[in-house]
Amino acid sequence: MKEFLHQKGVSFVEKDVSRDDAALDELLQKGLAATPVTVIDGEAVVGFNRQRLEQLLGV
Known about the structure:
The chain is 39% helix and 14% strand. The protein has three helices and two strands; from the N terminus they run ααββα. It has helices spanning 2-7, 21-29, 50-57; strands spanning 37-40, 43-46.
């Protein structure tokens, strides 16, 4: 995911749910229990769905 975003020139904030309890709580509050999760304009994409990510990013 990070490499994909770097290649597309997209800045991002990485949150590690295995080390950050607040990030884990945020994930669980969204009703999600899997990673990676990418949130773009409030929409969560679970896993690496290249087509959906490109669509949301407009790239």
